[in-house]
Amino acid sequence: MAYLSDIEIAQQCKMKPIAEIAKxxxxxxxxxxxYGRYKAKIDPALLxxxxxxxxxxxxxxxxxxxxxGEGKTTTTIGLADGLSRIGQxxxxxxxxxxxxxxxxxxxxxxxxGYAQVVPMEDINLHFTGDFHAIGAANNLLxxxxxxxxxxxxxxxxxxxxxxxxxxxDMNDRQLRFVVDGLGGRPNGTPREDGxxxxxxxxxxxxxxxxxxxxxxxxxxxxxxVAYTYDDQPVTAGDLKATGAMAAxxxxxxxxxxxQTLEGTPAFVHGGPFANIAHGCNSVMATRMAMRMGDYTVTxxxxxxxxxxxxxxxxxxxxxxxxxxxxxxxxxxxxxKMHGGLDKxxxxxxxxxxxxxxxxxxxxxxxxxxxxxxLPCVVAINRFPTDTDEEITFIIxxxxxxxxxxxxxxxxxxxGKGGEALAREVVRLCGEKKxxxxxxxxxxxxxxxxxxxxxxxxxxxxxxxxxxxxxKQAEQLTDLGFGGLPVCIAKTQYSFSDDPALxxxxxxxxxxxxxxxxxxxxxxLVALTGEIMTMPGLPxxxxxxxxxxxxxxxxxxxx
Length: 558
Prior knowledge:
Elements: H1 6-12, H2 18-24, E1 32-34, E2 40-42, H3 45-49, E3 56-62, H4 72-85, E4 90-94, H5 99-103, E5 111-112, E6 115-118, H6 120-124, H7 130-150, E7 157-162, E8 166-168, E9 178-180, E10 191-193, E11 195-197, H8 202-209, H9 213-222, E12 224-228, E13 233-235, H10 242-249, E14 256-260, E15 265-268, H11 283-292, E16 295-299, H12 304-319, E17 325-330, H13 332-338, H14 351-371, E18 376-381, H15 388-399, E19 404-408, H16 410-413, H17 419-430, H18 446-458, E20 462-465, H19 467-478, E21 486-489, E22 509-518, E23 523-528, E24 547-548, E25 554-555
Parallel strand pairs: 3-16, 3-17, 4-15, 4-16, 8-11, 17-18, 18-19, 20-22, 21-23
Antiparallel strand pairs: 1-2, 2-14, 5-6, 6-14, 7-12, 9-10, 12-13, 14-15, 22-23, 24-25
């Protein structure tokens, strides 16, 4: 049987005009700014003027990623369509894809199979230009920083202590470390520099955490770009760059409205990575979805140790949000990989490998229910090769933790395959809740907060700061940043900072090699392992297979 590709399925969809989708989402036409027939931006004034009360918030997260795939975004979309099919008023809230992974190895972020947001090609490529605006704001700040130095350096910036990088939304390892300003005095001051991918820029984090335009400008002004010769921070506000940056971001800050294959409204806005940033869509889009729908289904990047931890400990803390239910997504195939099985053997029943791998799922579930005290359901994306014995084993193990397991077939069946999951989510949202708690208190010291995440969420023995990181922690504390939440940048492939440690390893120590403050975003970034803020392309990038035919139709995009 020949299966259609994701893009072929998406291109067969007869989309509804975006005005119809806006009406379904209870958005008055006066707030709708159309980008063609099937995309729109929504005026943030809606948030201030609507009288609708917030609905339920459902977070979709996942087990630790493997090459076998988990289907978190696909489940998010399929669950929303499933909720719609059982009569619920629901809206999806997702991140925008980065061009880097789209042309690299990971692929897009618009779902898959029969659970997608459309127009798929637009969303996975330039969409409404938000990422370009964020990159432009980032690079304007970089240009104004270097220009200030060129024009006399009144602030006394030490060029060896510049922390702000340029950015581009592309996987380009060649730009990780560069030397610029060459060619003599008229062409700038020679210095070491570098590029981050746009989704790793602090502008992206600021953009996604801002509650409105005023908050956006305040956060932009606090961004630290360098330090002076006497180690005092220099901010975007000091460089008088705030207003111009905000101007570049004015339209981008308006949430984007699109639809699922089944016509469910979807806000797709912002896109920080969860392994190097906080990994959630914008606060404004989440709040807008919650005000316009009785249920909002959102997702956080990578496994629950990365995306969900940051969603809960950073985004929810800052925005005053609390999920009413959490879905942890996994597959039999991925759990068998965590149990040491080779990818080529995943189609064969292997309860031994499943038993070795299932602690990964159980640790994520335990974190949600016992650390954060949130109601949880496990969604298993069922593959044709999964056996009843394997499924029964997972159900039994999750039941021992007091958590139900629901089979999901949304990739193949769309919303129909998500109805059972939808009913369980509605049940969980109606239950009496425990008090939602964070994994650490902000009053703890920097190292203590890092230790809390490593021990409580990762299951490790502790954290070790390099001498350089220890000095940075002391400096950041002295500068008054010790009370901020922590954003740990680490590999997505393991609970630890070693991607080779699969399953649910114990006794490991996470090494923090660098600490820096994202003062505008409002958190501290701890870099661990070999994590990069500028990815590279693989040996055979997806870009080699993407094309446009003679009719202007995009092909080869997944």
